Amino acid sequence: MFHVTLEQGQGLTTMLAISAAAIVLTVYGYRRTTRQLPRSPARTLLALRLGAVLLVLLLLFRPVLSLQRDVQQKRALILVLDQSASMSIRDDASGVPRFDQARSRVLEWTTRLNQEFELPILTFADQATTLEDLRELQSLTAEGKATSLTRGLVNAARVKPRAEVEGVVLFSDGNHNAAGDPVEIARKLGVVVHTVGVGNSLHGNSSYRDIQVTGLECPPQLPINNQARLTAFVDAVGFPGRVVKVQLEEDERRIAEADLVLDDVEGPQAVALQFLPTVKGRHRYTVRVPVLSEEKIAENNHRSALAQVVDARLRVLYLEGTLRAEYGALVDRFLAKDADIEFCALVQTRRNVFLQRTNIAGLKLSGIPTDPAVLARFDVFVIGDLDSTFLRPEQMNQLIKRVREGAGLVMIGGYNSLGPGGYGGTPLEAILPVEVGSREIGQVKEAFLPVLTPEGRTHPIFANIAGFFPTREGPAKIAGLPPLDGCVRLGRARPSATVLAVLPDPGGTPQAAMPILAIHPVGQGRAAVFTGDTTRNWQQIPRAFDKESPFLRFWGQLIRWAANRNDAVKAEAGIEAHTDRAYYEPDSPVTILAVVRDKDGEGAGKAEVRARVRVPQSHDIAVNLTPVAGPAGHYRGIFDPHRSGTYEIVVEGKLGSETLKAESITVEVGRPNLEFERVDLDEKMLTRIAAATGGRYYHLSTADRLLETLDRKEQKRRLALEQPLYWPPLYWILFVGLLTGEWLLRRRYQLR
Fold first, then answer.
1. Rounded to two decimals, what is the model's pTM?
2. Of 426, 657, 665, 706, whose CB neighbour count within 10 A is largest?
3. Can you name the CATH fold of 210-310?
4. Which of 576, 573, 572, 574 is nearest to 649 (CA)?
């Protein structure tokens, strides 16, 4: 069947009518012009003119010849084959891997059905691939790191238009372990999905013997030098009463083990493993149970997790009795600038009314906390110019208990602190490294610089800043540090104390000098007393003259020591980066975290931070990191990994004209041995997928029955072909040629 249409939209009748009129007018005109010529030349000239007119009409109306014919077309049967690592399991009597069994069936079906169906073939694991040539299937192995049934189904539905698809046949063991719900995805595809189960339900086999590490609870971050606890889950079949060793390895080095008596109860047994992480950085922790000779599957006897050993972020509670200059210096120039500290500062604005300043999300305190659970959230307590009457005995006892359990206490000078604040004889004085004296002990009002003792010169609190202070042997090596305006008087140091700095005493012996900074242990915690209350001078005046200041490092190192962390504070620009977890499921978002510090070691909140992510078997992507609430200088960015593998992340920050670069980070998408966490054939999942689409489920052993249900009738399809009856370039050339020929003949015949 064919018919002619016009591309410009006019009717064919209109074109014929105009063409007829043009022909009549052309013939009429030429009859007058060529009346004196012989018949043959006249006909030639008329033919040339009519040809030119017809070419113009064709170019104007652009006719198209449309042809239609009905053809018989094969329907598509799309074969989808699971290529994940769990398909390498040999769990039948023949010892043939699941993947090889399924592949043999796919190859057999392509031979039997290729006369009746189109047979596209896809393989999938965490990604899906359409095979261009059937020969590619022969060289494939089951080694995918994850099983994404959703990706396999979605990509199968895209191979052919839905109207041309007879159905999708999914060969798999059904152990979906990636993002998305395969049943919901299948329901929305609009095509029938038949599922073929490959493998066996091993737990239902009386001869089956296996030990499997089914789970590992490992925190993504572990505080250094703190007792850590990992919990492994071990499920055993066929070994009741057998005693096995559950081993914990850190980077392939055994660090703990526990005996486990295997039971015959369905479900895993929990095993707690404790250890002490001592090296900062990223480590791989592996729980392993030695493989027994009766086991068929060895790959599931261990499980690994990655964790970052870090200095945990410090939390400081600062209690202040008045809005004094020292409060502003500590909060604005230290606590709010230190990138490693979360703090809550409570300052009394009028009697028993406290104002909260904090960078801890969700924390709201209207007064000095009394709840032990709240106190337990903090690592260090700083008590400033706050009279003892604001702390009830039970509050003091709760605070003392928290310090003995491992927290730090720092009491600083003021007109209403220590002795003048009435702390003499209180329970709190009993855990301080000095005797504070009575309320009448008074203040030192003469300016001075603390003199470091021999212990102070080498103590972590004065790391890298001892040169700013005089010692008993001589003046400061780095001149120019402003003196303190005064301090609170103290009694003598306790025998357990270490005095790090003293008040200069030109008239007396060095041994009699009054302590300015003293420390000592309290149970598992630490306590310090620093009597100076005008350290803002150490920050303001040097900064005004663009000189180095020990202010941030002194307070940072004092607080870190109180929290039992002795790392020195570095006064240099830098950037550190890590991720919120060490491994991720495919399609789970990866969060990149970075901390940027300026040349003074303070958190930099106005840096430009970007990460470059090297994606396995793909191109790099860029991720912008933006500032986040909390300690200064913290940034965060997020990206979505779409395939399993190892990702390398490089984070850079631009701070003014300086470019900072962090050490590269590697994260894993898809857990190691993820494919062997579940090894049984999941017939329930495959049945649900088939039922959601109107399909059927078969085990591989009975899958040939599916072929009997297929509709082998070829689909009638109407093909439409269109052939334009014009070609502008050629027609314009012919048009010019015809007019040129007519003009030459008219000159030859001496016509106008």
1. 0.62
2. 665
3. Immunoglobulin-like (2.60.40)
4. 576
CATH 3.20.20.70 for the 314-562 domain, yes or no: no
The answer to whether 213 and 301 are in contact (CB under 8 A) is: yes
Q: Does residue 257 sit in helix, strand or coil?
A: strand
Answer yes or no: same fold for 75-198 and 574-669.
Answer: no
What long-range pairs does 11-14 form, CB within 8 A, spacing at least 24?
12/63
**Superfamily of 574-669 according to CATH:** Macroglobulin (MG2) domain (2.60.40.1930)
| Strand, coil or helix: 399 | helix
Parse the chain into domains and list their residue ranges: 2-70+721-748, 75-198, 210-310, 314-562, 574-669
With CA atoms as reference, report the closest residue to 81 among 160, 139, 168.
Answer: 168
* End-to-end Cα separation, the chain, in angstroms: 48
Across 276-377, the runs of DSSP E, i.e. the strands, are 281-288, 302-310, 314-320, 341-350, 353-358
Q: How far apart are alpha carbons 162 and 185 in whole angstroms?
A: 15
The class level of CATH for 75-198 reads alpha beta
Token code pair at residue 724: 């334009």
Give pLDDT tens digits for 109-160. 999 998 889 999 999 998 899 999 888 999 999 988 889 999 999 999 999 9
Nearest in space to 280 (alpha carbons), one of 368, 358, 221, 362: 221
